[in-house]
């Protein structure tokens, strides 16, 4: 039986001038910040807060990022980051992320971000909070 496709979490953001390079487009590294912000916001909707987890010795870490740049955002562009989260195996989770320009819906970037949780000893562990978040 296939597991249901998760509903994407969406957040709209706006490109700021200082995020652009000399060609007046968003610098490629800045997109990683957009993706991370969206992941944090999604996790908060599932009652997972980095500060609280960290105080308990649990660290959520990225282990792999695959990014396909499709087109460039420019200063002032509004855009939506769509993010879905799924479990991958015993100790991994995967975020599928897409950035679309709001004005026309054009796909600007797609990414797959893989992560895991580490316990206080730095060992992979899937704590109960994550189990609940994947409900």
Count of runs of 4 or more consecutive helical residues: 3
Give the topology string: H per helix, E per strand.
EHHEEEEH
What is the fold named in CATH at topology level? Thiol Ester Dehydrase, Chain A
Strand portion, in percent?
35-45%
Order of strands across the main sheet: 1-3-4-5-2
Offer a few descriptive terms.
5 strands; HotDog_dom_sf; 135 residues; YbgC/YbaW; Thiol Ester Dehydrase, Chain A; Acyl-CoA thioesterase; 22% helix; 5-stranded antiparallel sheet; 4-hydroxybenzoyl-CoA_TE; 3 helices; alpha+beta
SSE arrangement:
Blueprint: E1 9-14, H1 28-45, H2 50-55, E2 59-69, E3 78-88, E4 92-101, E5 107-118, H3 128-133
Antiparallel strand pairs: 1-3, 2-5, 3-4, 4-5
Could you characterize the architecture of this molecule?
It comes from Aquincola tertiaricarbonis. This is Acyl-CoA thioesterase. Pfam families: 4HBT_2. Belongs to the 4-hydroxybenzoyl-CoA thioesterase family. Keywords: Hydrolase. There is one protein chain. With 135 residues, the chain is α+β, with helices and mostly antiparallel strands. The protein has a single domain (9-133), classed as Thiol Ester Dehydrase, Chain A, CATH 3.10.129. 22% of the residues lie in helices and 37% in strands. It has three helices and five strands, in the order βααββββα. The chain has helices at 28-45, 50-55, 128-133, and strands at residues 9-14, 59-69, 78-88, 92-101, 107-118. It has a five-stranded antiparallel β-sheet. A hairpin with a 5-residue loop joins strand 4 and strand 5. The longest helix is centred in the N-terminal third of the chain and has 18 residues, at 28-45. The radius of gyration is 16 Å and the shape is elongated. The protein starts with 8 loop residues before the first strand and ends with a helix. The model has no long low-confidence stretch (mean pLDDT 92).
């Amino acid at each position: 039986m296939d597991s249901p496709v998760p509903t994407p979490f969406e957040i709209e953001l706006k490109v700021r001038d200082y995020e652009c390079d000399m060609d007046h487009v968003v610098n490629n590294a800045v997109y990683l910040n957009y993706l991370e912000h969206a992941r944090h916001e999604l996790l908060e909707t599932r009652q997972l807060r980095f500060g609280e987890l960290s105080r308990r010795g649990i660290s959520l870490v990225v282990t792999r990022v695959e990014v396909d740049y499709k087109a460039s955002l420019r200063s002032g562009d509004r855009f939506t980051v769509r993010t879905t989260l799924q479990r991958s195996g015993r100790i991994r989770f995967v975020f599928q992320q897409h950035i679309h320009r709001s004005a026309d819906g054009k796909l600007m970037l797609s990414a797959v971000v893989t992560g895991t949780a580490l316990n206080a000893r730095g060992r992979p562990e899937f704590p109960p909070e994550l189990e609940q978040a994947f409900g």
